[in-house]
């Protein structure tokens, strides 16, 4: 295994979390440079910092490589969570963050380097489908993938987003039966969460700004369940919002570094709502701050990250995830 032929490692910063700066500029095997040869000191510093934070770690020729592919991905806490899981179970593995220019090149690199598993995030969750050898039935029905498994060059796709969201909601709401959900967004996470909620026979309304995308997603979902409607953001009023019990933001609005933005106007958030923002960086987004001020029940993105990440770990390893240790690592990083 020669990671150095495929991924560029960006300069390490002393104030960064372990390995969150190990991000590729591009994932094409023939065009990337490993900075170890040019900036050996920089990479040695990164390795030392990782070892000091995740001790004990022993990299060797048998170390399994896992990663996240996204763009942007500097904000990701997945390395913190999954490396804590590997360390607590004494698994000889490491999890890095890569920012490829294209998901096609990332999948090529995954095969070439024998990357054992990967998380997929914005903006690749739907596009990645066409580059996979096999897709799990649930992920195929959902139409998006957030988890990859490499079995000797055969790349299979799965989706744990919907599971992660559902468990997070059930942890704060005793019964979801009969509730109405408004989902903000129309990307891969929106598809996964909407599909999972419909499987629970929960009515879902898709809301967004792009009429074509909102309508397309709603029409796709209706093929499975007719309890789906759609609205444009410009159509929303406080009176309309009275009809909804749960608001879920699946867009990146409010994510670092654009923390002063929110997907909904203050007047549209009512005390009766349970507000769920899947954005976890920052943990307290502007949307969640407003919801707290209004007295809403809140569900944080870090909960979904943990729940979907635990499911990923189980898919990759075939063993139960150490969720307590994963949560501790996440909360320690956020405080």
Which structural class do the helices and strands define?
Answer: alpha/beta
Provide the CATH top-level class of the largest domain.
Alpha Beta
> What kind of sheet is the major sheet?
6 strands, mixed
Strand order of the largest sheet: 2-1-3-5-6-4
Spatial shape? globular
Task: State the share of residues found in helices, binned by percent.
Answer: 25-40%
The CATH architecture of the largest domain can be named as 3-Layer(aba) Sandwich
Topology-level CATH name of the largest domain: Rossmann fold
β-strand percent reads 15-25%
Question: Domains counted in the coordinates: how many?
Answer: 2
CATH superfamily of the largest domain: Leucine Dehydrogenase, chain A, domain 1
Question: For the residues shown, what is the average pLDDT?
Answer: 85
Order of helices and strands: HEHEHEEHEEHEHEHEHEEHEHH
- Distance from first to last alpha carbon: 36 Å
Low-pLDDT parts are 1-55
Task: Count every beta strand, where a strand is a DSSP E run of 2 or more residues.
Answer: 12
Q: What value does the Rg take, in angstroms?
A: 20 Å
The tally of helices reads: 11
Task: Explain what the structure shows.
With 335 residues, the protein is of the alpha/beta class. 36% of the residues lie in helices and 16% in strands. It is built from eleven helices and twelve strands. The chain has helices at 40-54, 78-88, 103-113, 137-142, 161-170, 188-199, 211-222, 238-241, 286-294, 301-317, 323-334; strands at 64-69, 93-98, 117-120, 134-135, 147-151, 154-158, 180-184, 203-208, 228-232, 246-249, 274-277, 297-299. Strands 2-1-3-5-6-4 form a six-stranded mixed beta sheet, with helices on both faces. A six-stranded parallel beta sheet has the order 9-8-7-10-11-12, with helices on both faces. Helix 2 (78-88) crosses helix 10 (301-317), helix 2 crosses helix 11 (323-334) and helix 10 (301-317) crosses helix 11 (323-334). The longest helix has 17 residues, at 301-317. The radius of gyration is 20 Å and the shape is globular.
């Amino acid at each position: 295994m020669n990671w150095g032929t495929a991924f560029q490692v960006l300069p390490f910063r002393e104030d960064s979390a372990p390995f969150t700066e190990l991000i590729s500029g591009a994932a094409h095997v023939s065009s990337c440079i490993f900075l170890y040869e040019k900036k050996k000191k920089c990479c040695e510093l990164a390795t030392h910092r990782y070892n000091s934070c995740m001790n004990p770690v022993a990299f060797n020729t048998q170390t399994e490589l896992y990663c996240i592919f996204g763009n942007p991905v500097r904000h990701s806490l997945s390395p913190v969570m999954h490396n804590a899981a590997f360390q607590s179970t004494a698994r000889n593995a490491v999890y890095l963050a890569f920012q490829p220019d294209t998901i096609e090149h990332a999948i090529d690199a995954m095969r070439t380097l024998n990357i054992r598993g990967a998380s997929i995030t914005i903006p690749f969750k739907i596009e990645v489908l066409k580059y996979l050898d096999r897709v799990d039935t649930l992920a195929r029905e959902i139409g998006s993938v957030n988890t990859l498994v490499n079995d000797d060059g055969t790349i299979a796709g799965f989706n744990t987003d919907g599971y992660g969201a559902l468990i997070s909601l059930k942890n704060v709401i005793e019964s979801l039966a009969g509730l109405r959900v408004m989902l903000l967004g129309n990307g891969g996470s929106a598809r996964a969460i909407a599909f999972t909620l419909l499987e629970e026979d929960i009515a879902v309304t898709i809301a967004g700004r792009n009429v074509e995308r909102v309508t397309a997603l709603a029409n796709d979902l209706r093929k499975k369940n007719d309890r789906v409607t759609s609205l444009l953001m410009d159509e929303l009023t406080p009176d309309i919002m009275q009809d909804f019990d749960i608001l879920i933001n699946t867009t990146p609005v409010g994510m670092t570094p654009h923390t002063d933005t929110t997907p909904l106007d203050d007047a549209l958030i009512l005390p009766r709502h349970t507000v769920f923002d899947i954005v976890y960086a920052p943990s307290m987004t502007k949307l969640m701050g407003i919801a707290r001020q209004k007295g809403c029940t809140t569900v944080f993105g870090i909960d979904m990250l943990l729940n979907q990440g635990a499911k990923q770990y189980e898919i990759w390893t075939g063993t139960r995830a150490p969720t307590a240790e994963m949560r501790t690592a996440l909360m320690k990083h956020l405080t």
